[in-house]
Amino acid sequence: MHLSQAVGRITPSMTIGMDDRARTLRRQGVDVISFAAGEPDFDTPAAVKQAAIEAIQEGFTKYTSPAGIIELRQAVAARLRRDYGTAYEPDEIVVTAGGKPALFFALQAICDPGDEVLVPVPAWVSYIEQIRMAGARPVLVPTEAAEAWQPLRDRVARCVTPRTRAIILNSPHNPTGTVYTRETLAGLVELAERHDFYLVSDEIYERMVYDGARHLSVPGVWPEARDRIVLLNSMSKTYAMTGWRLGYAAAARPVADALIALQGHLAGNPNSIAQKAGLYALTHQVDLAEMVTEYDRRRRYIVARLNDIPGVTCAPPVGAFYAFPDVRGALARPGGPSTSLALAEYLLDQAHVAAVPGEAFEAPGFLRLSYATSMEKIEQGLDRIAQALVPLATPA
């Protein structure tokens, strides 16, 4: 059976794959603890759910504008202005059927075949694949754990060519948990201005910051560069609305119009009921402090436990909800797993714990563990990991 070359070039998401394997094992009766999925374990706030119920009862179940209802676009623009000082008009906001379509439409809108998009690595799994879907070429820019995974200006500059169309920024960062500093972002904005390329700023984890770290929204801090910035966000992580599929992009009017045209043909419009729920979340005081405080408690625990395991080191993440331990010390014993991919398979098979290998993020030698799960499961999962890894640790 013939399948297109484009489909053949797609690598399935390893994060989703690992979580699916965990689900399959659970259906078979295996007690699996999963650190794989980047999904809050908190429920969507009750008042947000009630807004959706009322929308259904009122019959708000028809098509909307491809850009989303005007009230929601106004609320997004007002919220960005209030929190970050950005200056987007409602017609520069495009509500999408999840965060991934916002990225997909943005890349389709700004990239031609043969263009290059810079991707600091480690990087979320879908960036590289979506760049390829747009016909562009991902150019991987290495970052280092010793430099807090910051995409330093000089290192990025060496990867810029006349074909560079954009750089993807992600802060707070998945998978490393770093938060880009003002100095880092200023250097990247300056490069984009000098070489005339876009900054695609994925700020989906904006509210999850710890230890005094501060999230800087790029168009708010550098308004002079707003016309070359495409801001991406979603309701999924902040409001525990992953299944609602509601994201948005903010961009200069020509880019926003292109996104609207793409969504009009591909999705038609974002889910009408989810839009009403999102509108409530943005226009009412939904308390997020308890959720972030709990993430912080789990973060401290998981980092301390990982650093107690021989062969594992883990710097404290200051954003998002992932730990990204270096497990190379556990890959050195003859006869044991020799890669983080093999180690992840070993942990799933032997300890019944699902973690995502660094290979998924272009970072072999590391694992990603989501702490967006209950403390009880974190404790049990780390007990299993510690027991499974002790025999693999490098001898003292």
The SS-based structural class is alpha/beta
Strand order within the widest sheet?
A: 2-8-7-6-5-3-4
- Total number of strands: 12
Q: What's the average pLDDT?
A: 94
Order of helices and strands: HHEHHEHEHEHEHEHEEHHHEHEEEH
Number of helices, counting only DSSP H or I runs of 4 residues or more: 14
CATH 4th-level superfamily of the largest domain: Type I PLP-dependent aspartate aminotransferase-like (Major domain)
Distance between the termini: 55 Å
Q: What is the fold-level CATH name, i.e. the topology of the largest domain? A: Aspartate Aminotransferase, domain 2
Round the Cα radius of gyration to an integer and report it. Answer: 21 Å
User: What would you call the shape?
Assistant: globular
User: Mind describing the biggest β-sheet?
Assistant: 7 strands, mixed
Notes on the structure:
The chain has about 400 residues and is of the alpha/beta class. It has 2 domains: about 5-45 and about 290-390, Alpha-Beta Complex (Aspartate Aminotransferase, domain 1); about 45-285, 3-Layer(aba) Sandwich (Aspartate Aminotransferase, domain 2). The protein is about 40% helix and about 15% strand. The chain has 14 helices and 12 strands. The protein has helices at about 5-10, 15-25, 45-55, 70-85, 100-110, 125-135, 155, 180-195, 220, 255-265, 270-285, 290-305, 340-350, 375-390, and strands at about 35, 95, 115-120, 135-140, 165-170, 200, 230-235, 245-250, 320-325, 355, 355, 365-370. Helix 8 (about 180-195) links the parallel strand 5 and strand 6. About 50% of the residues are buried.
